[in-house]
């Protein structure tokens, strides 16, 4: 999940349990002592108070609250927070006011900063390789939202097979003709997903959980493509590995994207040419994985019969051509948005920091950039 995500109010989340007034970082100074300092970005924690107390017993916690990019850069240049060893961002919708974590920002971090534990599964907003070259481990929180994202993916898959957007919009219009049209004609163009092939791009934790739900609930057959073959996982869900993305596209009835965005578009015109005609596309990963112009063309010519999109290429802006279609189910990047996810994000970030303090990089629970990490 990126920085451009819903507010707690939009997500149905409760207000902070012990909300503190917003403060300028200029009012915050590190306390003296032998404890290492952690920079807490954004709002107060809301749920895991005992664990936060443990964190505070082992770290000197310094707060930034809400702070923009320029003020954040100035504070780093002035070493306002001293030589902090880590950063903690418990929520994806706060603490990211400084924007993308690119080289400009990372170069200003003190050399002492060795770990950044943040909420959210996606990390397209942070240059994890540059962080690694700085000697900083980046830890995401994908496991905390796995269940919520997988549930939302099932909703989108079912929407594609059963024309749920068409039926929903017709009823919502309160127009008798629209209702009758959907009521009388949807059955001729919809299908049950049972027995069809779900092709998953990325059999990570979230992709695997989606596969488990799809096989158990709908008896779907699973194929997958990933940069690394995962035989234990494929055996657990009876999945078939495809050597190439094109092989997966050509043999699947519904393609689901569950892979990180690495900076390059994954599906464009050349890839859509390999889709089975009339197949479906679901994306719960990152919007920029799909060329939306090419997707619109694929929907126009019938290559894609339906799509379900939680994420969009230009968030928070949605492609109006997609929004106007009855065969496209759209969400507002909320697949992982649940109270349970937020509780898990908050907890996992602290577990990463505490684990790192105890065992170094081996204690980090969910690191994503160790393969590039520059070690002292």
UniProtKB/TrEMBL annotation:
Keyword set includes Protease: no
Region (Disordered): 1-37
One example GO MF annotation: glyoxylate reductase (NADPH) activity
Alphabetized UniProt keyword annotations: Oxidoreductase
GO cellular component, one term: cytosol
Domain D-isomer specific 2-hydroxyacid dehydrogenase NAD-binding: 157-335
Domain D-isomer specific 2-hydroxyacid dehydrogenase catalytic, first and last residues per copy: 101-336
Oxidoreductase keyword on record: yes
InterPro entries noted in UniProt: D-isomer_2-hydroxyacid_DH (IPR050223), D-isomer_2_OHA_DH_cat_dom (IPR006139), D-isomer_DH_CS (IPR029753), D-isomer_DH_CS1 (IPR029752), D-isomer_DH_NAD-bd (IPR006140), NAD(P)-bd_dom_sf (IPR036291)
Chain intervals with Polar residues compositional bias: 1-10, 26-35
SUPFAM superfamilies xrefs: Formate/glycerate dehydrogenase catalytic domain-like (SSF52283), NAD(P)-binding Rossmann-fold domains (SSF51735)
Record family assignment: Belongs to the D-isomer specific 2-hydroxyacid dehydrogenase family.
Protein name: D-mandelate dehydrogenase-like protein
């Amino acid at each position: 999940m990126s920085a451009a995500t819903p507010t707690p109010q939009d997500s149905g989340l409760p207000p902070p349990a012990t909300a503190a007034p917003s403060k300028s970082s200029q009012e915050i100074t590190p306390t003296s002592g032998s404890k290492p300092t952690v920079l807490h970005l954004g709002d107060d924690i809301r749920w895991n108070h005992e664990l936060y107390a443990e964190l505070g017993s082992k770290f000197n916690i310094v707060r930034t609250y809400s702070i923009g990019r320029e003020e954040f850069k100035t504070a780093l240049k002035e070493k306002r927070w001293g030589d902090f060893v880590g950063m903690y961002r418990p929520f994806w919708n706060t603490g990211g006011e400084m924007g993308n974590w690119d080289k400009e920002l990372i170069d200003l971090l003190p050399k002492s900063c060795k770990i950044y534990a943040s909420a959210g599964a996606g990390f397209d907003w942070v240059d994890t390789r540059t962080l690694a070259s700085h000697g900083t481990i980046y830890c995401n929180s994908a496991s905390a939202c796995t269940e919520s994202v997988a549930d939302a993916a099932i909703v989108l898959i079912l929407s594609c097979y059963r024309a749920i957007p068409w039926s929903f919009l017709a009823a919502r219009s309160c127009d008798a003709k629209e209702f009758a049209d959907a009521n009388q004609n949807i059955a001729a163009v919809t299908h049950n997903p049972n027995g069809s092939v779900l092709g998953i791009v990325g059999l990570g934790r979230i992709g695997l959980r989606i596969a488990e739900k799809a096989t158990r609930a709908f008896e779907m057959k699973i194929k997958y493509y990933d940069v690394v073959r995962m035989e234990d996982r494929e055996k657990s869900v009876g999945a078939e590995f495809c050597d190439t993305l094109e092989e997966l596209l050509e043999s699947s009835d519904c393609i689901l994207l569950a892979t990180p965005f690495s900076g390059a578009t994954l599906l464009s015109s050349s890839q859509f040419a390999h889709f089975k005609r009339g197949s479906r596309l679901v994306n719960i990963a990152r919007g920029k994985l799909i060329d939306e112009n090419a997707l619109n063309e694929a929907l126009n010519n019938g290559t894609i019969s339906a799509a379900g999109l939680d994420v969009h290429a230009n968030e928070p802006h949605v492609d109006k051509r997609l929004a106007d279609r009855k065969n496209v189910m759209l969400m507002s990047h909320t697949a992982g948005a649940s109270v349970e996810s937020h509780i898990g994000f908050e907890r996992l970030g602290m577990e990463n920091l505490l684990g790192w303090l105890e065992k170094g990089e081996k204690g980090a629970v969910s690191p994503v950039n160790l393969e590039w990490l520059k070690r002292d």
